[in-house]
Amino acid sequence: MRVLAFAPSASAVIEDGGVTTRGFPLTNVYLARLPAQITVPLVLAVCTQAGSDYDPRRYIVARSPSGERLSVLECSWHWPDQEGEPFKFRVFAHQLPIAVQFAGVHTIGLYHSPDATQPAYVFPLPVKGPGAAPPS
Fold first, then answer.
1. pLDDT band at 136, cuts 50/70/90?
2. Which residues pair with 14 in a beta bridge?
3. Which residues, other chains included, contact 123 with Cβ-Cβ below 8 Å and sequence gap of 6+?
4. How far apart are CA 60 and CA 109, in angstroms?
5. DSSP assignment string, the chain
6. pLDDT tens for each residue of 34-77
């Protein structure tokens, strides 16, 4: 399975077989106070050759700047082949809850197992706290 896109967004909604986003990719999060419970929309787009990956399972893990695991989201689906098609595609718009304790560069990783230490893909997400001015 090949990952075509893996990144947070300001908003992400599945529409007409695809994903509609705003603020993609999300490069900063500005919070008025800390700690804070936030939900980050996350786009995951994948493809693979027909005849493989019928029941993929991956884990999306948010980590603090110190590496502490903040949340885990299991992503699994049944993925049948489409008759006559050599490839199959899938896109998701997940909502990832994260308990942010302090400012700093958090990471969102895509892992093969919930306990894996090395992500297959990782996205750095700077979180800025009170006093940080969002871009105008």
1. low
2. 19
3. 6, 7, 8, 25, 107, 108, 109
4. 6
5. -EEEEEEE-SEEEEETTEEEEESSS---EE-SSSSEEEEEEEEEEEEEETTS-SS-EEEEEEE-TT--EEEEEEEE---PPPTT-SEEEEEEEEEEEEEE-S-EEEEEEEESSTT-SS-SEEEEEEEE-TTPPPP-
6. 999 999 999 999 999 999 999 999 999 999 999 999 999 999 99
Q: What domains sit in the chain, N to C, each tagged with a CATH number?
A: 2-128 (2.60.40.2550)
Quote the pTM value.
0.92
Question: Is it the case that residue 101 has pLDDT exceeding 80?
Answer: yes
